[in-house]
Amino acid sequence: MARANVIAALNLAEERCGRSGKRLTDLRRQVLEIVAASPTPMGAYDVLSELSQIRGRTDPPTVYRSLEFLLDLGLLHRVESLNAYLACSEAHEHVSQFLICRSCGATTELSRGSVVETLRDAAKSQGFSPDRFTVEVSGTCTTCA
Ligand SMILES: [Zn+2]
Ligand SMILES: [Zn+2]
User: Fold this and answer.
1) Domain span holding position 100
2) Ligand nearest to the CA of 142
């Protein structure tokens, strides 16, 4: 399961990099592999410690730059309430919607367009111009229920 996630994430990365003329360096690829292999969102320092095992000593800014790169390409999401990163589970137009289990940290990505439409309409009625949407719902997953 995790392996399939990693392969899917790497394929998507190759495709998006190819299309935008960006380079998927070894470092960026390794960061993506680490995050995609994790069943729960990972903090930057967890990524750093795994990366250091593969590459030897690595500086935090190096990791942050790679995470930013992958975020910009829509390959990762930042889960704001956990201050952590998760590989995108599907190629979709990006608005983050997550269900986050408070007990085990399992995080499920949703992609319901209607949630965003509702928020967009509500913002518009306030004369507000939204540029980023984050929907994070915390609770209990089926395993922990
Ligand atoms: Zn996604
Ligand atoms: Zn759970």
Assistant:
1) 96-139
2) 2
